[in-house]
Amino acid sequence: MRLRTTVLIIAAFCAAGCDQRRSAETASPDAPEQVTTPAAQPAAGASAEGAATVEPGLSPNMPSPPPGQVMMRVMPVWRKFAGDPGPRYAIDMVWDTTARRVVLFGGAYNARVEGAERPDISYYNDLWAWYPDDASWKKIETKGETPAARAYYAAAYDPRRNGLWIHGGSHTHTLGDLWFFDCASSTWREVEIVASERPEMRAGHSLHYNPKTDELLMFGGFHSWETMRLSHEFWAFDCQNAKWSRKPLGPRARFMHLAALAPDEQKLYITGGFGVNAQYTEEELWVYDIAQDSWTSRDDTTGSKILAGRMEYVPAQKFLVTICGNDGRAERRYDLETHEWKNTTVRPSLPVRGFHGTALDPVGERLFVYGGTFGGFFGTCLEASLWMRDFKRDKPTAVPAGPAKGAPVAPQP
């Protein structure tokens, strides 16, 4: 049974890599939504690939400009920055709202071995921070006992305590421990659980901190590499009292799914992931209403069966954004008002990948992506580069209108 399950999983991951290649080769851009204007210059530290571009054409969805002005939208771009932590995958990242930085922990690296079917996998337990102000990585020197090296863990940032929560993951086996990193003192500590009831060991799950209830919300994952038994359990962790409790069941069992929390809406969104026997899950978008303590699903969204991708919530513009995964599309959006998915054209495009990490700055409306593999679970680790996407640049802006083509120009006094 273990061999059959492993073969199915490897086949699914390999198929995911093939989907990435086919989609990357055949993808066609959507119609642009810009009017001509001088191109913006890349930020300090960004590569030339990150230079903004603009193209003519107006979208019918753009608002009407004030009299004497026209609407302008700069072409969305991804900016690429040199990386320092080195190539790695199966990572999670968070946005530290206090220090305004990206924080990355651990992960794994595939080293190719000549003549071997599988790579030699290394695991990490180091901690890094990326600062957008000067586009630099810094390794965080920590105090206290450090969590064991791991990948496929789940992480969440807690602004109330100014710290990072880390749960589970895997190395030679799956883990079930819970750790907290105090950003102010740079100290790790393993959390002692008060009650006896707690989640089983797991990896490939999701974890989000809800500031309104002061809880961690954890869903899904797999319990062991040997059996690949999946979980559909939904748990909440009371951060103040260090106590786990079960929540209502909703989506089917899965791992490496996409999840995003909308704190202002008090809703958790889940879609995609690997199901039983490494099969695709349904295309439904599941929604957990925190106030109602109940799940609902939308099966009319014509979403994607995305594996090993990421999803974030952009509060200022009320949409979910999925980043990469097996289907090869670098970016898709789900409008929470119209309940529709839409492909997004971005040049230069983010290279397709899976098992990467993302973090969102909700105030600056910036999305950060790092790491991952191309070609599936045992695929090649991508170069050590951080990519940044600024969603504020997508917003149409009113600018003074010039004279119409062929219109007479008033003589200068």
> How many H/I helical runs?
1
Q: Mean of the pLDDT scores?
A: 82
The radius of gyration is 22 Å
The helix content, as a percent range, equals under 10%
Any idea what the shape is? globular
Could you give the order of strands across the largest sheet?
2-27-24-23
User: Which architecture name does CATH use?
Assistant: 6 Propeller
Strand content: 35-45%
Biggest sheet architecture: 4 strands, antiparallel
Structural class based on helices, strands and sheet pairing: mainly beta
- Classify the oligomer: single chain
Would you give an account of this structure?
There is one protein chain. With 413 residues, this protein is mainly beta. It has one domain (80-398): Neuraminidase (6 Propeller). Helices cover 6% and strands 36% of the residues. The protein has one helix and 28 strands. It has one helix at residues 2-26; strands spanning 69-72, 78-82, 92-96, 101-111, 120-131, 136-139, 154-158, 163-170, 174-182, 187-190, 206-210, 215-219, 234-238, 243-246, 258-262, 267-271, 285-289, 294-298, 310-314, 319-323, 331-335, 340-343, 357-361, 366-370, 373-374, 380-381, 385-390, 397-400. The strands form eight sheets. The protein has a four-stranded antiparallel sheet, with no helix packed on it. Mean pLDDT is 82; it is low at 1-8, 16-61 and 402-413.
